[in-house]
Amino acid sequence: MVQKNQSWWMQQVEAGGDNNKEKKEARVVEFPVSPQLMYGEEMVHFSHPRHRLSRMCLPDLFTCSGCKEYGAGNRFSCQQCDFQLHDFCAFSPPALKAHPFHSHHHLLFYSKPVKGGIMQSKCEICAKPIKGFAFRCGVCSFQMHPCCAMLSSEMKVPSMHPHELRMLGAATSSSVVDQPSNLVVCGECKRRRSGRVYRCTVCEYHVHAVCAKSLKNGLRDNGHKGTEKPSVLGTAARLASQVVVEFLGGIIEGLGEGVGEAFVQNINGKAAPSPLHHR
């Protein structure tokens, strides 16, 4: 079972390479196997040693207790408490060697994020905060989620786009000049956002790496879309603006009609009429 898991990780990375056999052989990726105890379809994982985890596949949405990100479908779940792991988080090796996204340094597995005060560390691939499991470089500041490590430099997904997609900024043989990800509109979410981007090799179609992750974490196959948690700062800003609007509305309502109109005109940047002075 352990050897099977090792080859499974190898296949995920090799599947993202070029179809040219010589290019595959020139880029060998090694994935040491993390020490897990397997009992058939059960596992004793270091992050949850109290209970065994059972392998199962369910369509419902869950939050992985390892990387703290969403998932659906395949998972390892505790039957005694609410602890669940993505299958790739459960099988995460202790180190990644020559990963296509960061081939010049080894990436070590860490079960906890870097402590950075109020600023959360972010994944170099999807630009989302790292709250749990991650692969981190011991030489530089590069780090990424286990799910992002499952992505490939190139991919072809007919259900998403008919042409091959290649990640910009990754270690590929592409000569295409990279462009900032926040300047392109994703064909999946129709938004602009930070993080790595896949670009079509034929047309101008783009896909965010964070959207491509839905192919690995089971969200796409199980019909879950738009599952990202809203930004805390964005929500706070919307609530604050709503409070201000309601507050100003209350003031205007309590003022006289003439003074109220002048107040509104001042807010809109228009010159307010001179107030009438009664003698």
TrEMBL record:
Keywords: Repeat. This is DC1 domain-containing protein. Transmembrane segments: none annotated. Residues 46-90, 102-149 form the DC1 domain. Pfam families: C1_2. The keyword Protease does not apply. InterPro entries: C1-like_sf, DC1. PANTHER family: DIACYLGLYCEROL KINASE THETA-LIKE-RELATED, OS09G0492800 PROTEIN. It comes from Citrullus colocynthis. The keyword Isomerase does not apply.
